[in-house]
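#structure-requests
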Amino acid sequence: RSADLESRIETSRLQNLTLFGLFDPNAPPPKEISTTEPLQISLEPTGYWSGKLTISATCYLLINVSLPYQQVVGLYLRRNSLPTAVRHDFFHRLVNVQSQKKPHALPVVHLAQPAVWYVSLINDQRHSKARLEMRVTKTDLDYRLTDCHGGCSNRGACQSGVCHCFAGFKGADCSL
């Protein structure tokens, strides 16, 4: 009886640590992220994945994550250390409500200064596995979103006051 109880307590503790971003210290080290090949990632319920990317010069990171319909994943970035739910340099909640038939690409843009950047994806759903694809691209193009209406809804690049929408988005401000 006590072995079963101890097992349930340990399982609950590990799930709660993952949910709050206090990652398992016994987990394998973060994988190197390639900017030439997409990554196929499978996240268990309440699971996470971590990778790292060395940036030698200031650039924009274009991170495209393809998620199945109604899947929700948290994307965390942190400079020089693994991110947690309370310590991160960037967070974006990714959810696919666009396409029921195929995974939908959700683009995110982040200005990255020279450093080792750690990327974590967290599936906080207790009963749903997440299978996703992530593609990371570095570019020197200026993706500042301040010159365009609504900042291109964070779904496109602003160039000369005109939004150029990422794949899957349209409209003057990329909101459709």
